[in-house]
Amino acid sequence: MSNPSLLILPGDGIGPEVMAEVRKIIDWFGAKRDLVFDVSEDLVGGAAYDAHGTPLHDDTMAKAQEVDAVLLGAVGGPKYDVLDFSVKPERGLLRLRKEMDLFANLRPAQCFDALADFSSLKTEVVSGLDIMIVRELTSGVYFGEPRGIFEEGNERVGINTQRYTESEIERVARASFELAMKRDKKLCSMEKANVMESGILWREVVTRVGADYPEVELSHMYADAGAMQLTRWPKQFDVIVTDNLFGDLLSDLAAMLTGSLGMLPSASLGAPMANGRPKAMYEPVHGSAPDIAGQGKANPIACILSFAMALRYSFDQGDEATRLEKAIEAVLADGYRTADLLGEEGRDPVSTSAMGDAIVAALDASL
Ligand code: IPM
Ligand code: MG
Questions:
Q1: What is the distance of C-alpha 38 from the center of its chain?
Q2: Residue 153 alpha carbon to ligand 1 centre in Å
Q3: Which pLDDT does position 286 carry in this prediction?
Q4: What is the pLDDT of residues 166-219, one digit of tens each?
Q5: Residue of 76, 5, 78 whose CA lies nearest to 47
Q6: Active site residue 248
Q7: Domain range summary for the chain, segments of one domain joined by +
Q8: Ligand 1 in contact with 93 (CB < 6 A)?
């Protein structure tokens, strides 16, 4: 059988730097665990715009449809702010999500012991935190029609549409229940059924799907109350399922509970392909951080953990994913910190590549 295939799209800003560290990890698994991937690399976002005048070339889109998994760094930067909306770097990312139909976006918020003090919340509130937000990723207000800026009388009106079909809600709900079954069997669904019809339908469909999962304790919360509860006592949650826009907001909130956006991976999953693997793209939750790009300051851990998610969800290598996660824990416990993990602390941070090297050394030590 041929090796599993990976398409790497480093993107913009710190994307290429953090991805270079992921390449070290991929090479390690090839050399030491006989897990060899066919890796190809291409452009996305501003980098693709600079080369081709589009944030995602059709050839790249076609490649993404063929591989077993896509690994993406980050897109965007101030240089591209002046571009027309239709060719902004973010459009490349959104096109990948939409055309690959990656409807379930898994965003874990996990607090590493070594970093519990680093959260802006009290240590007891966040230590041991391990929750998973499932964000619907291919519909809702991000894609609903009508959308645009239109003339209305003597002024303009900006319109976006929140739109969900029953089947769109059902499939992300099902993915979330399946995940809850493998975790603590608790699922909280968040919408605004008090003000939005799409929220009423969301609640109804999630409840209906829940009948197939009697073991999972299902609850519902309005998304604003959910935000409040997430900051008050996040450990009350296990899996949270929510729509595209609420998921965008709530996952940033949940990310910060853990101390640093530089730590959090994500998986975007679609329907199974012919080989049984889900269509999948993995990316760190953080952005392109143009202010620190090219300086060796970026934290590669979110991107490396995204590869760990790929091992787990695309390649059935849960044990190797755990090995990688444990190596990262060990490195953090040993005191390795990139700049984002030091805050006001006066000591010198390690560089992006030194962090990658330390993780490779910890992987070696795990054998
Ligand atoms: C995210 C980002 C994206 C989004 C942007 C870059 C388009 O914020 O992945 O959370 O809004 O979905
Ligand atoms: Mg976001």
A1: 23
A2: 33
A3: 87
A4: 999 999 999 999 999 999 999 999 999 999 999 999 999 999 999 999 999 999
A5: 76
A6: yes
A7: 1-107+261-367, 130-257
A8: yes
Tens of pLDDT, residues 302-351 = 999 999 999 999 999 999 999 999 999 999 999 999 998 887 767 889 99
Ligand at minimal distance from the CA of 249 is 2
Per DSSP, 67 falls in state S
Given 27, 101, 184, 224, the catalytic residue:
224
Q: Quick one: 130-257 is in which CATH superfamily? A: Isopropylmalate Dehydrogenase (3.40.718.10)
Respond yes or no: is residue 27 known to be catalytic.
Answer: no
The pTM of this model reads 0.94
The string over 190-220, giving b where at least 16 C-beta atoms fall within 10 Å of a residue's C-beta and e elsewhere, is: bbbbeebebbebbbebbeebbeebeebebeb
Residue 90 CB less than 6 A away from ligand 1? yes
Which of 93, 94, 246, 252 to mutate for ligand 1's pocket (most ligand atoms within 8 Å of CB)?
A: 93
Distance CA 180, CA 241 (A): 10
CA 128/CA 135 separation, integer angstroms: 22
Active site residue 282: no
The whole-angstrom separation of Cα 181 and Cα 185 is: 5
Q: Would you say the CB of residue 248 lies under 6 angstroms from ligand 1?
A: yes
Q: Do domains 1-107+261-367 and 130-257 have the same CATH topology?
A: yes
Two tokens, residue 245? 């826009």
Please name which of 169, 178, 175 lies closest in space to residue 199, comparing C-alpha atoms: 169
Over residues 5-47, the pLDDT tens digits come to 999 999 999 999 999 999 999 999 999 999 999 999 999 999 9
Q: Does domain 1-107+261-367 have CATH number 3.40.718.10?
A: yes
Ligand with smallest separation from the Cα of 283: 1
* Active-site pick, 27, 101, 130, 252: 252
pLDDT in the model for residue 76: 97
